[in-house]
Amino acid sequence: MTAVKEVQIPNVVNISAQEAKQKVEELKLVYTELEPEFSPDIPEGYIIKQEPAYLDYTVKENSEVKVTISKGQEIAIVPKVIGKTKEEAIEELEEANLKAQVIEETNAKIPEGVVISQETEAKTQVNAGETIKIHVSTGVEQVTVPNVVGKTEEEAKKAITDAKLKLKQVI
Residue 143: pLDDT above 80? Predict the structure, then answer.
């Protein structure tokens, strides 16, 4: 009866699945592929991780080396969120595996809390996890009308324009 030899665990992370299989089997180890996963860093078809991990130790021949192969970067499709409430838009973007960056702006025509525009067009393919900028209406900007009673015409005009109001002359 022959004793089973000890072999060094190979490092197969970040090499192609084909190379990894060859490396593992050359050492008389058993190569097993686990469920593939998306990876933003490791190209499609390359090894993301292995079990047991590569360390400076040996295992017996015929031991199993399990690998997870990359499916590459996950792609997401940007949904159309214009006209939706801010909350609905954020939820839809998150469901599409995207993040939302809200930019608030005043708009006299679009009600407060409704998405006016989005910086990435709907149906565009982007990397999952990307941030999509959405512009959300804060409604009409509210200003305080200054009291101009008892002021000179010039003082009144200045107070009105300083308050971001338009001056309309009434005769």
Answer: no
As a 3-state breakdown, the chain gives helix, strand, coil percent values, each rounded to 5, of 20, 30, 55
pLDDT at 171: 64
What does the alpha-carbon distance between residue 159 and residue 16 come to, in Å, rounded to a whole number?
A: 71
Predicted TM-score (pTM) of the model is: 0.64
Task: Please state, as a whole number, how many other Cβ atoms lie within 10 Å of the Cβ of residue 40.
Answer: 11
Confidence of residue 146 (pLDDT cuts 50, 70, 90): confident
What would the DSSP string read from start to end of 24-63? Answer: HHHTT-EEEE---B--SSSPTTBEEEEES---S-EEETT-
Query: What gap in Å lies between CA 27 and CA 61, rounded to an integer?
Result: 7
Nearest to 108 by CA among 82, 145, 143, 137: 137
Instruction: For residues 137 and 152, give the distance between their C-alpha atoms in angstroms, rounded to a whole number.
Output: 37
